[in-house]
Description:
By secondary structure, the chain is mainly α. Helices cover 79% and strands 0% of the residues.
Amino acid sequence: xxxxxxxxxxAFVLILNLDPELLxxxxxSLKVSGLALLIATLLGLPIGAFMGMKRFPLKGIIVNILNTxxxxxxxxxxxxxxxxxxxxxxxxxxxxxxTPSAMVIAQTILAFPIVASLSNSxxxxxxxxxxxxxxxxxxxxxxxxxxxxxxxxxxxISAVIAAxxxxxxxxxxxxxxxxxxxxxxxxxTTTIALETDKGDFELALALGIILLSISLIINxxxxxxxxxxxxxxxx
Length: 235
């Protein structure tokens, strides 16, 4: 019990003293996950909006595929990206394997279906009266789309935040494609796994506390956004 208490004390000391190694790992995690989320949102939101606003052949199949991909096992994504970026792979000439760029690619693949699918669900859930009223007032197609997206904004924001939570907590894919290289591709989740295996719990606990805090903030934000959205609907 004493050793666990000591480990927690040292972990809080690392956090309070703003340990450079700790900060470097945290900033790299936020950088990689943030960039992956940005790319996934730029790709996923237009696709989700298009599917939510249009009717076209095979739409149901595409939606089912996106819903299935929301639960993609990270290690499978990591293996797929590894094969693509390895020396014998089609993109091996780019030299991206074991770099932060490879980690961004893997996390983008994980985040994209979440953003696209949940954004589509949010847009479909908008009251049809909004669209009909916009068209009645003479709005163009793009203006109607903007009006619907604005109405679905709380659901879309929740989708983006949920995707961020997914990639921040991910370990399997980035461990495979990033290699967990100290000072280069070592992020919070991979460091926790490594330090735990080594029996050095102070840094692992410090990062675990930070990761849990981020998770709490993400979940609280989603809850507040959903409550605000429900309040707007009930007005």
